[in-house]
Protein backbone atom coordinates (compact mmCIF):
# COMPACT_ATOMS: atom_id res chain seq x y z
CA UNK A 1 0.00 0.00 0.00
CA UNK A 2 2.82 2.38 0.83
CA UNK A 3 4.58 1.36 -2.40
CA UNK A 4 1.40 2.33 -4.30
CA UNK A 5 1.39 5.77 -2.72
CA UNK A 6 4.96 6.39 -3.73
CA UNK A 7 4.09 5.10 -7.22
CA UNK A 8 1.67 8.04 -7.34
CA UNK A 9 4.57 10.42 -6.70
CA UNK A 10 6.68 8.60 -9.27
CA UNK A 11 3.96 9.04 -11.91
CA UNK A 12 3.71 12.70 -11.03
CA UNK A 13 7.44 13.17 -11.44
CA UNK A 14 7.60 11.34 -14.75
CA UNK A 15 4.74 13.48 -16.02
CA UNK A 16 6.64 16.61 -15.06
CA UNK A 17 9.66 15.37 -16.97
CA UNK A 18 7.99 16.10 -20.30
CA UNK A 19 7.80 19.83 -19.67
CA UNK A 20 11.20 20.32 -18.10
CA UNK A 21 14.45 21.68 -19.39
CA UNK A 22 17.55 19.46 -19.46
CA UNK A 23 18.58 20.45 -15.95
CA UNK A 24 15.01 19.84 -14.81
CA UNK A 25 15.24 16.27 -16.06
CA UNK A 26 18.47 15.74 -14.16
CA UNK A 27 16.65 17.05 -11.07
CA UNK A 28 13.83 14.51 -11.58
CA UNK A 29 16.39 11.72 -11.97
CA UNK A 30 18.23 12.77 -8.80
CA UNK A 31 15.01 12.98 -6.80
CA UNK A 32 13.78 9.66 -8.08
CA UNK A 33 17.01 7.63 -7.90
CA UNK A 34 18.93 9.13 -5.04
CA UNK A 35 16.15 10.22 -2.78
CA UNK A 36 12.93 8.28 -3.31
CA UNK A 37 14.58 4.95 -4.08
CA UNK A 38 17.11 5.24 -1.26
CA UNK A 39 14.30 6.20 1.11
CA UNK A 40 12.19 3.18 0.15
CA UNK A 41 14.96 0.63 -0.17
CA UNK A 42 17.11 1.53 2.82
CA UNK A 43 16.14 4.40 5.04
CA UNK A 44 12.65 3.21 6.01
CA UNK A 45 14.06 -0.01 7.44
CA UNK A 46 16.71 1.68 9.51
CA UNK A 47 14.16 3.79 11.36
CA UNK A 48 11.55 1.03 11.52
CA UNK A 49 12.02 0.01 15.15
CA UNK A 50 13.47 3.22 16.49
CA UNK A 51 11.03 3.40 19.39
CA UNK A 52 11.30 -0.25 20.41
CA UNK A 53 15.07 -0.21 20.28
CA UNK A 54 15.41 3.05 22.20
CA UNK A 55 16.59 1.88 25.63
CA UNK A 56 16.96 3.77 28.86
CA UNK A 57 18.90 2.62 31.87
CA UNK A 58 15.84 2.54 34.12
CA UNK A 59 12.88 0.35 34.90
CA UNK A 60 10.49 3.22 35.70
CA UNK A 61 7.50 2.80 33.37
CA UNK A 62 6.92 5.77 31.13
CA UNK A 63 10.43 7.16 31.38
CA UNK A 64 11.49 5.72 28.01
CA UNK A 65 8.38 7.01 26.29
CA UNK A 66 8.86 10.49 27.63
CA UNK A 67 12.57 10.63 26.85
CA UNK A 68 12.04 9.33 23.31
CA UNK A 69 9.37 11.93 22.74
CA UNK A 70 11.65 14.66 24.07
CA UNK A 71 14.60 13.80 21.84
CA UNK A 72 12.61 12.94 18.69
CA UNK A 73 9.63 15.33 18.43
CA UNK A 74 9.21 14.40 14.79
CA UNK A 75 11.11 11.38 13.53
CA UNK A 76 13.81 11.91 10.87
CA UNK A 77 12.14 9.51 8.52
CA UNK A 78 8.83 11.36 8.65
CA UNK A 79 10.54 14.67 7.94
CA UNK A 80 12.32 13.01 5.03
CA UNK A 81 9.03 11.71 3.60
CA UNK A 82 7.35 15.12 4.05
CA UNK A 83 10.29 16.80 2.35
CA UNK A 84 10.04 14.47 -0.66
CA UNK A 85 6.33 15.08 -1.02
CA UNK A 86 6.50 18.87 -0.59
CA UNK A 87 9.44 19.27 -2.94
CA UNK A 88 7.71 17.36 -5.74
CA UNK A 89 4.45 19.29 -5.46
CA UNK A 90 5.38 22.68 -7.05
CA UNK A 91 5.90 20.89 -10.37
CA UNK A 92 2.13 20.41 -10.45
CA UNK A 93 1.77 24.12 -11.19
CA UNK A 94 3.54 23.63 -14.51
CA UNK A 95 1.46 20.56 -15.33
CA UNK A 96 -1.75 22.46 -14.60
CA UNK A 97 -0.67 25.40 -16.76
CA UNK A 98 0.19 23.19 -19.75
CA UNK A 99 -3.13 21.36 -19.42
CA UNK A 100 -4.91 24.73 -19.31
CA UNK A 101 -3.17 25.83 -22.52
CA UNK A 102 -4.02 22.59 -24.32
CA UNK A 103 -7.60 22.84 -23.15
CA UNK A 104 -7.90 26.41 -24.42
CA UNK A 105 -6.57 25.44 -27.84
CA UNK A 106 -8.99 22.53 -28.05
CA UNK A 107 -11.91 24.73 -27.08
CA UNK A 108 -11.17 27.41 -29.64
CA UNK A 109 -10.14 24.88 -32.30
CA UNK A 110 -7.27 27.08 -33.32
CA UNK A 111 -3.62 27.42 -32.56
CA UNK A 112 -3.31 30.02 -29.82
CA UNK A 113 0.24 29.14 -28.85
CA UNK A 114 3.27 28.36 -30.95
CA UNK A 115 3.85 25.29 -28.82
CA UNK A 116 1.74 24.56 -25.75
CA UNK A 117 4.60 22.77 -24.06
CA UNK A 118 7.38 25.25 -24.72
CA UNK A 119 8.35 27.43 -21.82
CA UNK A 120 7.61 30.95 -22.94
CA UNK A 121 5.52 33.82 -21.68
CA UNK A 122 3.14 32.76 -18.92
CA UNK A 123 4.44 29.20 -18.76
CA UNK A 124 7.95 30.50 -18.15
CA UNK A 125 6.69 32.51 -15.17
CA UNK A 126 4.93 29.44 -13.77
CA UNK A 127 8.07 27.36 -14.27
CA UNK A 128 10.25 29.94 -12.54
CA UNK A 129 7.80 30.19 -9.63
CA UNK A 130 7.82 26.41 -9.25
CA UNK A 131 11.64 26.43 -9.20
CA UNK A 132 11.71 29.11 -6.53
CA UNK A 133 9.15 27.23 -4.43
CA UNK A 134 11.10 23.98 -4.75
CA UNK A 135 14.32 25.63 -3.65
CA UNK A 136 12.58 27.42 -0.79
CA UNK A 137 11.02 24.20 0.49
CA UNK A 138 14.35 22.34 0.32
CA UNK A 139 16.09 25.05 2.32
CA UNK A 140 13.18 25.14 4.79
CA UNK A 141 13.41 21.43 5.49
CA UNK A 142 17.19 21.49 5.84
CA UNK A 143 16.94 24.34 8.34
CA UNK A 144 14.17 22.48 10.17
CA UNK A 145 16.33 19.35 10.44
CA UNK A 146 19.24 21.41 11.70
CA UNK A 147 17.19 23.29 14.27
CA UNK A 148 15.26 20.26 15.57
CA UNK A 149 18.26 18.01 16.03
CA UNK A 150 21.01 20.53 16.80
CA UNK A 151 22.97 19.74 13.69
CA UNK A 152 23.01 16.51 11.70
CA UNK A 153 24.72 14.38 14.32
CA UNK A 154 23.00 11.51 16.08
CA UNK A 155 24.63 10.73 19.42
CA UNK A 156 24.88 7.21 20.82
CA UNK A 157 23.91 8.31 24.29
CA UNK A 158 21.51 11.01 25.47
CA UNK A 159 20.90 12.02 29.06
CA UNK A 160 17.30 12.53 30.10
CA UNK A 161 15.80 13.85 33.34
CA UNK A 162 12.15 14.53 32.52
CA UNK A 163 9.40 13.33 34.83
CA UNK A 164 8.67 10.48 35.56
CA UNK A 165 12.36 9.63 35.25
CA UNK A 166 13.53 9.90 38.86
CA UNK A 167 17.06 11.19 38.11
CA UNK A 168 19.20 11.84 35.09
CA UNK A 169 18.95 8.67 33.07
CA UNK A 170 21.17 7.33 30.26
CA UNK A 171 19.25 6.54 27.09
CA UNK A 172 20.74 4.78 24.09
CA UNK A 173 19.66 5.40 20.50
CA UNK A 174 19.62 2.43 18.13
CA UNK A 175 21.85 2.40 15.02
CA UNK A 176 23.18 5.95 15.46
CA UNK A 177 26.05 5.68 12.97
CA UNK A 178 23.91 4.20 10.20
CA UNK A 179 21.26 6.87 10.78
CA UNK A 180 23.89 9.59 10.66
CA UNK A 181 25.30 8.31 7.36
CA UNK A 182 21.89 8.33 5.76
CA UNK A 183 21.14 11.74 7.22
CA UNK A 184 24.29 13.13 5.63
CA UNK A 185 23.25 11.45 2.40
CA UNK A 186 19.88 13.19 2.62
CA UNK A 187 21.56 16.55 3.23
CA UNK A 188 23.97 16.02 0.33
CA UNK A 189 21.20 15.14 -2.14
CA UNK A 190 19.13 18.08 -0.88
CA UNK A 191 22.05 20.43 -1.50
CA UNK A 192 22.58 18.92 -4.94
CA UNK A 193 18.92 19.53 -5.77
CA UNK A 194 19.18 23.12 -4.52
CA UNK A 195 22.22 23.68 -6.77
CA UNK A 196 20.40 22.13 -9.75
CA UNK A 197 17.34 24.32 -9.14
CA UNK A 198 19.41 27.49 -8.79
CA UNK A 199 21.43 26.77 -11.92
CA UNK A 200 18.24 26.04 -13.86
CA UNK A 201 16.77 29.31 -12.60
CA UNK A 202 19.81 31.35 -13.61
CA UNK A 203 20.05 29.54 -16.97
CA UNK A 204 16.42 30.34 -17.83
CA UNK A 205 16.70 33.96 -16.67
CA UNK A 206 19.92 34.42 -18.65
CA UNK A 207 18.50 32.79 -21.79
CA UNK A 208 15.35 34.89 -21.82
CA UNK A 209 17.02 38.16 -20.97
CA UNK A 210 19.43 37.59 -23.90
CA UNK A 211 16.41 36.84 -26.11
CA UNK A 212 14.65 40.03 -25.00
CA UNK A 213 17.79 42.10 -25.52
CA UNK A 214 18.33 40.71 -29.02
CA UNK A 215 14.69 41.32 -29.95
CA UNK A 216 14.91 44.94 -28.82
CA UNK A 217 18.23 45.36 -30.63
CA UNK A 218 16.71 44.03 -33.91
CA UNK A 219 13.71 46.35 -33.54
CA UNK A 220 15.97 49.37 -33.08
CA UNK A 221 18.04 48.36 -36.08
CA UNK A 222 14.96 47.97 -38.28
CA UNK A 223 13.61 51.29 -37.02
CA UNK A 224 16.80 53.18 -37.86
CA UNK A 225 16.96 51.47 -41.29
CA UNK A 226 13.42 52.60 -42.10
CA UNK A 227 14.27 56.19 -41.10
CA UNK A 228 17.41 56.13 -43.27
CA UNK A 229 15.42 54.85 -46.31
CA UNK A 230 12.82 57.61 -45.86
CA UNK A 231 15.51 60.28 -45.65
CA UNK A 232 17.18 59.03 -48.85
CA UNK A 233 13.91 58.95 -50.80
CA UNK A 234 13.00 62.50 -49.71
CA UNK B 1 -7.10 -0.21 2.97
CA UNK B 2 -7.33 -0.03 -0.76
CA UNK B 3 -6.95 3.64 -1.60
CA UNK B 4 -6.14 2.67 -5.17
CA UNK B 5 -9.78 1.79 -5.81
CA UNK B 6 -10.84 5.20 -4.50
CA UNK B 7 -8.26 6.79 -6.76
CA UNK B 8 -9.78 5.04 -9.79
CA UNK B 9 -13.32 6.09 -8.91
CA UNK B 10 -12.49 9.71 -8.17
CA UNK B 11 -10.31 9.95 -11.25
CA UNK B 12 -13.37 9.45 -13.41
CA UNK B 13 -15.19 12.26 -11.63
CA UNK B 14 -12.24 14.59 -12.13
CA UNK B 15 -13.09 15.08 -15.79
CA UNK B 16 -16.46 16.62 -14.98
CA UNK B 17 -15.35 18.83 -12.10
CA UNK B 18 -14.67 22.54 -12.03
CA UNK B 19 -11.06 23.63 -11.64
CA UNK B 20 -11.56 24.24 -7.91
CA UNK B 21 -12.87 20.67 -7.73
CA UNK B 22 -9.71 19.43 -9.42
CA UNK B 23 -7.53 21.33 -6.98
CA UNK B 24 -9.55 19.83 -4.12
CA UNK B 25 -8.95 16.36 -5.51
CA UNK B 26 -5.20 17.01 -5.80
CA UNK B 27 -5.04 18.27 -2.22
CA UNK B 28 -7.03 15.22 -1.07
CA UNK B 29 -4.71 12.74 -2.74
CA UNK B 30 -1.35 14.31 -2.10
CA UNK B 31 -1.74 16.01 1.26
CA UNK B 32 -4.22 13.70 2.96
CA UNK B 33 -4.30 10.17 1.61
CA UNK B 34 -0.62 10.04 0.75
CA UNK B 35 0.49 11.56 4.06
CA UNK B 36 -1.85 9.21 5.91
CA UNK B 37 -0.50 6.11 4.24
CA UNK B 38 3.17 7.07 4.05
CA UNK B 39 3.75 8.77 7.37
CA UNK B 40 0.84 8.93 9.79
CA UNK B 41 0.07 5.19 9.82
CA UNK B 42 3.60 4.49 11.02
CA UNK B 43 3.48 7.09 13.76
CA UNK B 44 0.36 5.44 15.16
CA UNK B 45 1.61 1.94 14.36
CA UNK B 46 2.88 1.14 17.83
CA UNK B 47 0.35 3.15 19.81
CA UNK B 48 -0.99 0.29 21.90
CA UNK B 49 2.28 -1.61 22.30
CA UNK B 50 4.08 1.44 23.55
CA UNK B 51 1.27 2.74 25.73
CA UNK B 52 2.85 2.21 29.14
CA UNK B 53 1.19 2.46 32.54
CA UNK B 54 2.99 2.67 35.86
CA UNK B 55 1.43 -0.50 37.29
CA UNK B 56 1.87 -4.23 37.10
CA UNK B 57 -1.86 -4.92 37.45
CA UNK B 58 -2.89 -7.06 34.44
CA UNK B 59 -5.66 -5.53 32.37
CA UNK B 60 -5.14 -2.02 33.67
CA UNK B 61 -3.14 -0.92 30.63
CA UNK B 62 -5.73 -2.33 28.21
CA UNK B 63 -8.63 -0.69 30.00
CA UNK B 64 -6.88 2.68 30.22
CA UNK B 65 -5.91 2.60 26.56
CA UNK B 66 -9.46 1.81 25.59
CA UNK B 67 -10.76 4.60 27.83
CA UNK B 68 -8.52 7.29 26.36
CA UNK B 69 -8.64 6.16 22.71
CA UNK B 70 -12.18 4.93 21.89
CA UNK B 71 -11.35 5.28 18.17
CA UNK B 72 -7.78 5.74 17.09
CA UNK B 73 -6.95 8.95 15.22
CA UNK B 74 -5.80 6.98 12.22
CA UNK B 75 -9.09 5.14 11.89
CA UNK B 76 -11.06 8.36 12.27
CA UNK B 77 -9.06 9.96 9.49
CA UNK B 78 -9.52 6.98 7.22
CA UNK B 79 -13.29 7.12 7.84
CA UNK B 80 -13.29 10.85 7.23
CA UNK B 81 -11.48 10.45 3.91
CA UNK B 82 -13.88 7.74 2.78
CA UNK B 83 -16.99 9.72 3.74
CA UNK B 84 -15.67 12.90 2.19
CA UNK B 85 -14.86 11.15 -1.10
CA UNK B 86 -18.20 9.36 -1.34
CA UNK B 87 -20.45 12.25 -2.50
CA UNK B 88 -18.40 12.37 -5.70
CA UNK B 89 -19.94 8.97 -6.45
CA UNK B 90 -23.30 10.72 -6.87
CA UNK B 91 -21.82 12.75 -9.70
CA UNK B 92 -20.20 9.67 -11.22
CA UNK B 93 -23.54 7.81 -11.15
CA UNK B 94 -25.39 10.74 -12.72
CA UNK B 95 -22.83 11.02 -15.49
CA UNK B 96 -23.02 7.26 -16.10
CA UNK B 97 -26.82 7.49 -16.28
CA UNK B 98 -26.64 10.32 -18.85
CA UNK B 99 -24.14 8.38 -20.93
CA UNK B 100 -26.37 5.35 -20.80
CA UNK B 101 -29.32 7.45 -22.06
CA UNK B 102 -27.25 8.89 -24.89
CA UNK B 103 -26.07 5.41 -25.89
CA UNK B 104 -29.67 4.23 -25.92
CA UNK B 105 -30.66 7.14 -28.17
CA UNK B 106 -27.75 6.41 -30.48
CA UNK B 107 -28.65 2.75 -30.75
CA UNK B 108 -32.26 3.61 -31.54
CA UNK B 109 -30.97 5.66 -34.44
CA UNK B 110 -32.42 8.87 -33.10
CA UNK B 111 -31.86 11.79 -35.50
CA UNK B 112 -31.37 14.23 -32.60
CA UNK B 113 -28.26 12.38 -31.50
CA UNK B 114 -25.23 14.30 -32.69
CA UNK B 115 -22.55 11.65 -32.06
CA UNK B 116 -20.91 9.60 -34.73
CA UNK B 117 -20.14 6.53 -32.66
CA UNK B 118 -20.26 4.98 -29.21
CA UNK B 119 -16.64 5.89 -28.50
CA UNK B 120 -17.47 9.57 -28.76
CA UNK B 121 -20.28 9.20 -26.24
CA UNK B 122 -17.93 7.39 -23.88
CA UNK B 123 -15.34 10.15 -24.13
CA UNK B 124 -17.76 13.05 -23.94
CA UNK B 125 -17.42 15.54 -21.13
CA UNK B 126 -20.68 16.80 -19.72
CA UNK B 127 -21.10 20.43 -18.75
CA UNK B 128 -22.25 21.19 -15.24
CA UNK B 129 -25.77 22.41 -15.96
CA UNK B 130 -29.33 21.31 -15.48
CA UNK B 131 -29.83 18.30 -13.24
CA UNK B 132 -26.08 17.59 -13.15
CA UNK B 133 -25.63 21.01 -11.53
CA UNK B 134 -27.99 20.02 -8.72
CA UNK B 135 -26.22 16.68 -8.21
CA UNK B 136 -22.81 18.34 -8.22
CA UNK B 137 -23.85 21.09 -5.82
CA UNK B 138 -25.46 18.67 -3.39
CA UNK B 139 -22.32 16.49 -3.48
CA UNK B 140 -20.23 19.53 -2.48
CA UNK B 141 -22.72 20.33 0.26
CA UNK B 142 -22.50 16.80 1.67
CA UNK B 143 -18.71 16.92 1.49
CA UNK B 144 -18.75 20.09 3.58
CA UNK B 145 -21.10 18.56 6.12
CA UNK B 146 -18.99 15.41 6.50
CA UNK B 147 -15.75 17.36 6.90
CA UNK B 148 -17.28 19.61 9.56
CA UNK B 149 -18.86 16.66 11.43
CA UNK B 150 -15.60 14.73 11.55
CA UNK B 151 -13.58 17.74 12.66
CA UNK B 152 -16.06 18.37 15.45
CA UNK B 153 -16.09 14.68 16.44
CA UNK B 154 -12.30 14.79 16.65
CA UNK B 155 -12.33 17.88 18.82
CA UNK B 156 -15.06 16.48 21.05
CA UNK B 157 -13.51 13.03 21.53
CA UNK B 158 -9.97 14.16 22.24
CA UNK B 159 -10.65 17.48 24.00
CA UNK B 160 -8.79 19.51 21.42
CA UNK B 161 -6.04 18.59 19.01
CA UNK B 162 -3.16 18.11 21.42
CA UNK B 163 -1.87 14.73 22.48
CA UNK B 164 -0.71 14.82 26.12
CA UNK B 165 2.34 12.89 27.28
CA UNK B 166 0.80 11.71 30.50
CA UNK B 167 -2.73 10.57 31.25
CA UNK B 168 -4.05 9.70 34.68
CA UNK B 169 -6.32 6.69 34.74
CA UNK B 170 -8.41 5.11 37.51
CA UNK B 171 -10.72 2.80 35.59
CA UNK B 172 -11.28 -0.68 37.09
CA UNK B 173 -9.12 -2.90 37.51
CA UNK B 174 -6.45 -0.25 38.06
CA UNK B 175 -5.95 -0.15 41.86
CA UNK B 176 -5.54 3.64 42.18
CA UNK B 177 -5.00 6.58 39.93
CA UNK B 178 -2.27 5.34 37.63
CA UNK B 179 0.10 7.30 35.38
CA UNK B 180 -0.08 6.20 31.76
CA UNK B 181 2.31 7.43 29.11
CA UNK B 182 1.45 7.78 25.44
CA UNK B 183 4.05 6.93 22.78
CA UNK B 184 5.30 9.71 20.49
CA UNK B 185 2.88 12.42 21.69
CA UNK B 186 4.67 15.35 20.05
CA UNK B 187 4.87 13.67 16.64
CA UNK B 188 1.20 12.74 16.91
CA UNK B 189 0.27 16.34 17.79
CA UNK B 190 2.23 17.61 14.77
CA UNK B 191 0.46 15.24 12.40
CA UNK B 192 -2.94 15.93 13.97
CA UNK B 193 -2.50 19.66 13.45
CA UNK B 194 -1.30 19.03 9.89
CA UNK B 195 -4.35 16.93 9.04
CA UNK B 196 -6.70 19.45 10.64
CA UNK B 197 -5.07 22.27 8.67
CA UNK B 198 -5.47 20.40 5.39
CA UNK B 199 -9.09 19.58 6.32
CA UNK B 200 -9.73 23.30 6.80
CA UNK B 201 -8.16 24.07 3.43
CA UNK B 202 -10.44 21.48 1.85
CA UNK B 203 -13.46 23.06 3.56
CA UNK B 204 -12.46 26.48 2.19
CA UNK B 205 -12.04 25.03 -1.31
CA UNK B 206 -15.48 23.43 -1.11
CA UNK B 207 -17.07 26.69 0.10
CA UNK B 208 -15.38 28.58 -2.74
CA UNK B 209 -16.59 26.02 -5.28
CA UNK B 210 -20.13 26.23 -3.90
CA UNK B 211 -20.11 30.04 -4.12
CA UNK B 212 -18.75 29.86 -7.66
CA UNK B 213 -21.46 27.44 -8.79
CA UNK B 214 -24.23 29.49 -7.17
CA UNK B 215 -22.91 32.72 -8.76
CA UNK B 216 -22.75 31.05 -12.16
CA UNK B 217 -26.30 29.76 -11.74
CA UNK B 218 -27.77 33.14 -10.81
CA UNK B 219 -25.85 34.95 -13.53
CA UNK B 220 -27.12 32.51 -16.13
CA UNK B 221 -30.66 32.89 -14.84
CA UNK B 222 -30.63 36.69 -14.86
CA UNK B 223 -29.11 36.72 -18.36
CA UNK B 224 -31.82 34.39 -19.60
CA UNK B 225 -34.54 36.52 -17.96
CA UNK B 226 -33.04 39.66 -19.49
CA UNK B 227 -32.87 38.09 -22.95
CA UNK B 228 -36.42 36.76 -22.90
CA UNK B 229 -37.64 40.31 -22.13
CA UNK B 230 -35.69 42.10 -24.86
CA UNK B 231 -35.18 39.56 -27.67
CA UNK B 232 -37.42 36.56 -27.25
CA UNK B 233 -36.23 34.76 -30.39
CA UNK B 234 -32.80 36.27 -30.79
CA UNK B 235 -29.72 34.15 -30.22
CA UNK B 236 -27.54 36.21 -27.95
CA UNK B 237 -23.96 36.18 -29.16
CA UNK B 238 -22.82 37.75 -25.92
CA UNK B 239 -24.35 34.95 -23.88
CA UNK B 240 -22.52 32.27 -25.82
CA UNK B 241 -19.31 34.24 -25.45
CA UNK B 242 -19.89 34.57 -21.69
CA UNK B 243 -20.61 30.85 -21.49
CA UNK B 244 -17.38 30.11 -23.32
CA UNK B 245 -15.43 32.34 -20.97
CA UNK B 246 -17.03 30.72 -17.96
CA UNK B 247 -16.14 27.34 -19.34
CA UNK B 248 -12.58 28.42 -19.97
CA UNK B 249 -12.31 29.61 -16.41
CA UNK B 250 -13.98 26.55 -14.96
CA UNK B 251 -12.65 23.82 -17.21
CA UNK B 252 -8.93 24.34 -17.15
CA UNK B 253 -6.50 21.66 -16.15
CA UNK B 254 -8.35 18.93 -17.98
CA UNK B 255 -5.49 16.55 -18.58
CA UNK B 256 -3.44 16.70 -15.44
CA UNK B 257 -0.79 14.07 -15.24
CA UNK B 258 -1.87 12.85 -11.85
CA UNK B 259 -3.01 9.81 -13.64
CA UNK B 260 -6.71 10.31 -13.35
CA UNK B 261 -8.16 7.94 -15.88
CA UNK B 262 -10.42 9.37 -18.52
CA UNK B 263 -13.32 7.02 -18.74
In short:
The complex is a heterodimer of chains A (234) and B (263). By secondary structure, chain A is mainly alpha-helical.
Named at the architecture level, the CATH assignment of chain A is Up-down Bundle
Structural class of chain B: mainly alpha
Shape of chain B: elongated
Helices of chain A, by number, come to 7
State the CATH topology of chain B.
de novo design (two linked rop proteins)
Uncertain segments of chain A are: none
Order of helices and strands of chain B: HHEHHHHHEEHH
Strand order of the largest sheet of chain B: 1-3-2
Average pLDDT number of chain B: 81
Low-confidence parts of chain B: 248-263
Please tally the helical runs of chain B, counting DSSP H or I stretches of 4 or more residues: 9
Tally of distinct domains of chain B: 1
Task: Find the CATH superfamily of chain A.
Answer: Gap junction channel protein cysteine-rich domain
CATH architecture of chain B: Up-down Bundle
SSE ordering of chain A: HHEHHHHEEH
Q: What oligomeric arrangement do these chains adopt?
A: heterodimer
